[in-house]
Amino acid sequence: MHVDARNLEDNSLIEGDICIAGAGAAGISMALDWVNSNHKVILLEGGGFDYDDRIQDLYAGKQTGQPYYPLKSSRLHYFGGTTGHWAGMCSTFDPIDFAKRDWVPYSGWPIKREDLDPYYARAHKVVQIGPYNYDVSYWQTQFPKFKPLLKDDDVVWNKIWHFSPPTRFGNVYRDTILQAKNIHLYTYANVVDVRANASVRSVDELVVKNFAGKTHRVRAKYYILACNGIQNPRLLLASNSQAPKGLGNDHDLVGRFFMEHLEVKSAFLWLQEPDPMDMYLLGKSIRAELSIREEKQAELKILNGTSSLFPLSIAQKMKPAIEVWNKQDPRESLRILRDYGEKAYQKKWYERFNRSGSKAYELFTRIEQAPNPDSRVTLDTEKDELGVPRAKLHWALTQLDKRSIRILYELIGQQVGRSAVGRVRMKEFLHDPNDYNWPVTTGGGWHHMGTTRMHDDPKQGVIDRDCRVHGLSNLFIAGDSCYTTGGAVNPTLTLIALALRLSDKVKELVGTTP
Amino acid sequence: MQRRTFIKIVGIAGTAGLPISGCEGAATIDEVLRLPYFLSGVSDIAALQSIGRKFGKSFPEQYDAVKLKDVLLASVSEGQQQPISDPSVLASLLADKTTRDFNTGDTIVLEGWVLSLTEARQCALFSLVQTQ
C-alpha cells in the first residue's frame, strides 16, 4: 500500500516490524523479499514517483579533491532511486575482492565470495538478467561468434558481464510494492534524524519530514538505512544529538573510505588483422572484459580492474564521462547519455562495423581504488531545505591506483604480444611510471562505496558482517556504502545480493523477537 | 601518428605499408634487422623512430648501430651452423624471437608501447639508420 506522507496529520506516528529507509535498488530489493510475509514493512522514500527538482536539491553538496560529478545529479531522489539512470551493467565480485591483501591497505572483508553466491543468483532475477553463469565456455556455446582475443587466460582472463535491460525499479516494481498488503510505502518521507535510546545502544525511531511542513516519527523493531553511499553516512553523521560525532561513529569511520571505480580511457589496441571482437562489444546481453588473474595481482601487488574494448572509430566520438555528466540537473545528464547512445550505436554504424570489424580499439579501464581514509564524506555547515547539513565529498586517490592501471596495461600488452594478434599502446598519462598525476579525463561510474564499511572490528568498520551498525542493536545498513573494498565491477548486483543476505538475517531476527 | 599513415592503419582495407622495402624478396639483411615486422604492421615510421630514440635515452650504452646489429644477430643465431645470410630466414627468426620475448617476459614499455625487447632494439636501430 502507499501513503503520501504530505497528506498525513502532522506528527503522525508510523509503526511497523521493520523499517527500510530508501526505495532504491537495495531498499526495494529487500522490500520485495518481504512481500506477503507476516510482518509489516515500512518503506520510506524521500521523493515521489517522479523527478522533482526541489527534492533532488536535497542531494546537492560540495566536492573537493579529485574532480568529481555534481553530488546533486549523481544519484536520483525518487522511488526507484538511482536505478532511474543506471546502465544495467552486472557482474560479480571476484574472490580476491573479499580477501585481505597485504599490498592493499584496509582490505579484507569479514565475509567471503561464497557467502554471497546464493544471493547473487537471487539478485540476477531482481535485475532481470540471465542464468547465474559467468563461465566463458558456457557463453561461447550460446554465442558461437565469441572468440577470445588471447591465446590463453593464464594471466589475462575474460570476465563475463550480464546486461540488465536496465531494470528501472521505480517502473518495474511499483505495482508489486503498492499492491503488497504488508508493504507500506511512504513517499515524501525524508529521513532527517535517527534517534537512539538513552544509552545509545539501539534506535528508537526515525524522524521524517517533507516540504508540506509535516514531521512524522517512524518506529520499528529493526531499521535499515538503504539511502546510498553518500546519504547513509550523511544521516548517521547528522544524527548527532545523542552522539556528538554521529551515530555509529565512535571511531571516526563513518563517511571515510569513499571509493569510486576509476574509469578512464587508457590505451589503444592495434590489431594485425581486423576483428569484430564480438565477445567484447556492447550491444548484446553478455560481453567480456579483460581482467587480471588473482595470482598475478598478488605477485605484482596491484588492484583489481578490467579493461573493455571500444572500436576506436566510435570511442573517438565519445567524450569522457567526467566531461559529459557534469550537469547539476540529472535529467540533462540522462539526455546527453541517451544522445550518445543513439549516435554511437546508430544502426548504420554498427552494421558497417559488424561486417568488417576493426584493427583499432580503445581500451577503457574500470578499476577499484585502494581504500583511503582521507577520501570521505563529511557534513557541510550549509543545511538543506529540511534542515539537514549537506554532504561534502572529498575524493582522494593513491599512488597504488595509478600504478595498478599502468601494470594492468603492461600485462595486457604482454599477452597481446604473446598471442601475436597486435600491440598495445598506453595513453600518454601512463607513459611515465613515476608520474602519479591524473588526467582531466579521469572519472568514476557514479559508484559511491565504502562509507559505512564492513569489518567485525568496530575500530576498523562501521558495520559488522551482518551489516549491523556496531554498537546499535537494531540498526542495519544496506547498499554499497557497506563495501570494505570496491571490486572491479559495477556495484549494483553485489549491493542487491548483500541486501538480500541482510534481508534473510533480519527475517531470522524478527522470527525470534517476541 | 600522421593522419595519412593513421588512416592506413585504422581503415578497413589495406595494411600499414611503410614506404620502405618489405622484408621479403628484395629486403637486405640490414633492412630486416631494422624493421620490426609485426610492429611495423600496426604503427608507422614516426612511431618506430620515437620508440627507437626513447630506447636510446633509456639505454645509451646500447644505442649504437653496430652494437645493436651484433646483439640482434646473436639473439637469433644460437643453433645456426653458419652466419645468417638469407633475409627471409632472418625475418622468420626475428619474428620467432619477438614472440619468445613476450613468452619469457623480455618486454619493455617505450612511449607507451608494450614491446618485445627484440623489436625495441630493432626500433633503436631503425632510428639510428633513418637519421643517417
Overview of the structural elements:
The complex is a heterodimer of chains A (514) and B (132). With 514 residues, chain A is an alpha/beta fold. Chain A has 15 helices and 20 strands. In chain A, the strands form 4 sheets. In chain A, strands 6-7-14-15-16-13-19 form a 7-stranded antiparallel beta sheet. In chain A, strands 1-8-4-3-12-20 form a 6-stranded parallel beta sheet. Chain A has a 4-stranded mixed beta sheet with strand order 2-11-10-9. In chain A, α1 (25-34) crosses α15 (492-512) and α4 (113-126) packs across α15. The radius of gyration of chain A is 23 Å and the shape is globular. With 132 residues, chain B is mainly α. Chain B is built from 7 helices and 2 strands. In chain B, strands 1-2 form a two-stranded antiparallel sheet. The longest helix of chain B is centred in the last third of the chain and has 18 residues, at 87-104. The two termini of chain B are 22 Å apart. At the A-B interface, β13, β16, α14 and β19 of A face α6 and β2 of B.
Précis, in short:
The complex is a heterodimer of chains A (514) and B (132). With 514 residues, chain A is of the alpha/beta class.
The number of strands of chain B is 2
Total of helices of chain A: 15
Q: State which percent range the strand residues of chain B make up.
A: 5-15%
Cross-sheet strand order for the largest sheet of chain B: 1-2
Q: What gross morphology of chain A would you assign? A: globular
Strand order, sheet with most strands of chain A? 6-7-14-15-16-13-19
**Which word captures the global form of chain B?**
globular
Descriptive key words:
heterodimer; A: alpha/beta; seven-stranded antiparallel sheet; 15 helices; 20 strands; 23% strand; B: 132 residues; mainly alpha; two-stranded antiparallel ribbon; 7 helices
Detail the topology: elements first, then pairings.
The complex is a heterodimer of chains A (514) and B (132).
Chain A: E1 2-4, E2 13-15, E3 18-21, H1 25-34, E4 41-44, H2 53-56, E5 62-65, E6 89-90, H3 95-98, H4 113-126, H5 136-142, E7 156-163, H6 169-172, H7 174-179, E8 183-187, E9 190-196, E10 203-209, E11 215-219, E12 222-225, H8 231-238, E13 261-275, E14 286-292, H9 294-300, E15 305-311, H10 312-315, H11 321-324, H12 330-344, H13 347-356, E16 358-368, E17 376-383, E18 389-395, H14 399-418, E19 422-426, E20 475-477, H15 492-512
Helix pairs in contact in A: 1-15, 4-15
Chain B: H1 3-10, H2 29-34, H3 37-40, H4 45-58, H5 65-77, H6 87-104, E1 107-110, E2 113-116, H7 117-130
Antiparallel strand pairs in B: 1-2
Helix pairs in contact in B: 4-7, 5-6, 5-7
